[in-house]
Design brief:
The chain is α/β, with parallel strands linked by helices. It is about 45% helix and about 15% strand. Bound molecules: NADP nicotinamide-adenine-dinucleotide phosphate.
């Protein structure tokens, strides 16, 4: 039992194992009640029991397949009417390293529904209430493949680029409404993710694989510091700042009434 102040309810998707289970642990210790979402009810129940015993927080389990339309809508409906929610951690996700030619399109379809549609719909379900209450935060687990899609499967990279772009846009739209959004871009992290994607983590050079606990602790330290995009492995943060500066420098030049002269197109000017 801890004496931490009550911080409201945090929803953590993909909480049954890996990165999500660590988020659940850390957030309960910080003072959040929890709603834990994933398919594996037994693992969620065991985690909920442990965390409520150790922290005294209320921990609810919502067993759901977030790639399934009916399950996703059931979770949305429950979360939409829960005014205690102050934090949404969109973390559930699957990925793989396989190329288009070696990938099953049905698995890609499921990946897009889980990695893209589920965080989108859960955000739409929860944000209006947060805005009405004038406070709230969202943590979206993206990946370094959001900016380096050549590293793994292209649909996975595209799904995480969506998460990064969506987070960037949400920050732009919601910052003045009291809502904070953080996109976390982990590099290789030691979880079941790799085995489930067909490449056990032991196949990666150990010097690029971070323990999930260190990854989450770094991401939460960055969240506390108000970072909007966090790359836990990145030592030289000026590299990210230069990337963002280059992106921002492009913005005034991206739309024009005529194509650029280098294309040689005869214009109507
Ligand atoms: N591990 C890495 O190297 C790495 C790097 C960058 C980003 N990420 C991202 O980090 C997030 C967490 O991954 P992880 O590494 O912790 O992997 P993990 O250990 O495999 O955990 C994935 C979590 O998502 C849940 N999940 C999977 N399919 C689901 C579904 N259809 N409906 C609901 N929940 C589902 C799993 O629970 P159930 O199986 O019980 O449903 C589990 O709790 C993912 O978004 C992943 O893309 C991971």
């Amino acid at each position: 039992m801890t004496n931490t102040p009550y911080l409201g309810t945090a929803v953590v998707t993909g909480a049954s194992t890996g990165i999500g289970a660590i988020y659940a642990d850390r957030l309960a210790r910080r003072g959040y009640d929890l709603i834990l979402v994933a398919r594996g009810k037994d693992k969620l129940d065991a985690l909920a029991r442990r965390l409520s015993d150790e922290t005294g927080r209320a921990v609810e389990v919502l067993a759901a397949d977030l790639s399934d339309d009916a399950d996703l809508r059931r979770v949305e409906a429950q979360l939409r009417q829960d005014a205690s929610i102050t934090l949404l951690v969109n973390n559930a996700g699957i990925g793989t390293h396989s190329t288009l030619l070696d990938s099953d399109v049905e698995r890609m379809d499921k990946m897009v529904r889980l990695n893209v549609l589920a965080p989108t719909r859960l955000t739409y379900a929860i944000v209006p209430g947060m805005v009405a209450r004038g406070k709230g935060a969202i943590i979206n687990t993206a990946s370094i493949v959001a900016i380096a899609p050549e590293l793994l499967n292209g649909v996975y990279g595209g799904s995480k680029a969506f998460v990064l772009a969506f987070s960037t846009s949400l920050n732009h739209e919601l910052a003045d409404k009291g809502i904070r959004v953080q996109a976390v871009l982990p590099g290789a992290t030691r979880t079941d993710f790799w085995e489930l994607g067909g490449l056990p983590v032991e196949n990666l050079p150990s010097e690029i694989v971070m323990p999930a606990s260190e990854m989450v602790d770094a991401a939460l330290a960055a969240f506390d510091a108000g970072e909007r995009v966090t790359i836990p492995a990145l030592n030289d943060v000026t590299l990210w700042q230069a990337y963002e500066a280059a992106r921002n420098a492009l913005k005034p030049h991206l739309s024009s009434q005529h194509p650029a002269p280098r294309f040689g197109v005869k214009t109507n000017a």
